[in-house]
Amino acid sequence: MTGHASVDSSTQGRAPGAEVGPAELNMTLSDALERAQADLREGRFDAAESIFVQILDQMPDEPNALHFFGLLRHQQGRTAEAIPYLRRTTQLVPEAPGPWMNLGNVLIETEQFIEALIPLQRAQRLDPESPTNYNNLGIAYLHADQLEASEAAFREGLRLDPKRHELHHNFARMLKAGGRLPEAVASLNRSIELQPDIAASHQLLSICHFELGDTALSLAALQKWQTLDPENPKIDHLRAGILGKETPLRASDDYVRDEFDKFAESFDHKLDLLEYRAPALVTQALTAIVSALPDAPAILDAGCGTGLCAPLIKPFCGRLVGVDLSQGMLQQAEKRRLYDCLERAELTEYLEKSPATFDAVISADTLCYFGDLAGFLIAAHRSLRGFGVVIFTLESLVDRSADFHLQIHGRYSHSREYVLRVVRENGFSVAGLTCKTLRKETDKDVAGFLVTAVRIPGAESSN
Questions:
Q1: Which of these, 195, 187, 219, 193, lies nearest to 206 by C-alpha position?
Q2: CA distance linking residue 159 with residue 211, whole number of Å
Q3: Is 441 helix (H, G, I), strand (E, B) or coil?
Q4: Does 246 score more than 80 pLDDT?
Q5: How does DSSP assign 197-214, residue by residue?
Q6: For a Cys staple, 104 with which of 120, 206, 416, 440, CB 3.0–4.6 Å?
Q7: Do 394 and 413 contact (CB within 8 A), yes or no?
Q8: Contact 117, 144 (CB under 8 A)
Q9: Is the dihedral of CA 265, 269, 271, 273 positive or negative?
Q10: Rounded to an integer, what distance in angstroms lies between the CA atom of residue 109 and that of residue 95?
Q11: Residue 19 belongs to what H/E stretch?
């Protein structure tokens, strides 16, 4: 959260000194709330919950208890339960800015950015001198692709508190999104001057310097990031992308797990904002070739993530299996109740251990974390039976002098010539390779390939 705010105590018709809760609590409402809030601040969630529950059992519309119980639920990771408590608080005390701000904050943290704007705008009207709320408004506007409004909010926050480092950092994010990289660098340097030990600022600074073409400054910022966050598996991966040499053949397991476990709960919503098309594209390709497969085919969703492909391809399946490295993603996929089996494993290793098991392997935006595709294709050939098919998406690389390239955002892009060659060299014929838009990033189309490769029975890899 970017800041908590309390509301004035309300006894809902009781005398201010009245006791609340069962006899063992034995304290006034104000004392009970003070103790519960202290427990919440110190991370004693069970103790705080016990007190809040006792208060709300007797006074279900006590606004302070509702407000802070909502914050407790959010900090417990039960955000879906938190939001109704915060909404109810805003109904009971509509002139208090704190509950409106915290409702907006929770909606931001669950990436419901459009929904967050209304409570944050209300909080701003109630407390127009809060730099914290302008920071939150700027973030919400940024993710809602309203850059002018975002800039205005950040500038007003900085006018009120020019020494708040998070305002400078988030202002830099907005500037980068608008393509204003030199200004973003200046804002990040100011943020780091005010608070040198925020790893995210050095990470963003490294990316901005790289995009400006200054490799030395990019690496210097990356090194500072690593000093602050030495166990982060993303750093070495991005260093290879910055240097453009000694590129790893694929992203490490630790990097992939860390990257996707962090975003598992908000992943689907985030992709909705990006107009994500990869699941629909692989389904379209599968539809075009499914008549050549056996009836009720066994299909592997390779890198299944949260299961976005499952509702689309389940109608084609006799058996649907999902495999992914991220336990957080698999937990979300399990909620769909569409997979016959879900496995946590590295994709290529899983395929190697599943000979002649599947009729089709589909992979939506997973192989962008692979540079060299040969290992995957060899393993996929082994896992398929008969004239099986592999359907996958990749991000396209314009530079024809390279087979693949590790981008600064951590994903690989591949050249068309390389994809055609590596597919044919590893036991497949190319039934389709078409250029498609996979999604949007910073309001720009991300170009990619949709590939359909048909297994040639008995064919051996030429590698």
A1: 219
A2: 29
A3: strand
A4: no
A5: T-HHHHHHHHHHHHHTT-
A6: 120
A7: yes
A8: yes
A9: negative
A10: 23
A11: strand 19-20
For residue 396, give the 3-state DSSP assignment: strand
C-alpha to C-alpha distance for 28 and 34, rounded to whole angstroms: 10
Distance, CA of 451 to CA of 433 (rounded, Å): 5
- Strands 412-414, 404-406: parallel, antiparallel or unpaired by DSSP? antiparallel
CB atoms within 10 A of CB 26: 11
What is the H or E stretch that residue 358 is in?
A: strand 358-363
Q: Which helix or strand (DSSP H or E) is residue 417 part of? A: helix 416-424
CA–CA separation, 335 and 246 (whole Å): 40
CB 287 within 8 A of CB 299: no
Per-residue model confidence as pLDDT tens digits over 127-160:
999 999 999 999 999 988 899 999 999 999 999 9
pLDDT tens digits, 359-388? 999 999 999 999 999 999 999 999 999 889
Give the per-residue pLDDT at 231: 81
Question: Which of 85, 64, 20, 72 lies closest to 46 in space, CA to CA?
Answer: 72
Question: Which pTM value belongs to this model?
Answer: 0.70
The full DSSP string for 274-325 is: TT--HHHHHHHHHHHHGGGSPSS-EEEEET-TTTTTHHHHGGG-SEEEEEES
Say how far residue 14 (Cα) sits from the centre of its chain.
45
Which residues, listed in sequence order, are joined to residue 320 by a DSSP beta bridge? 299
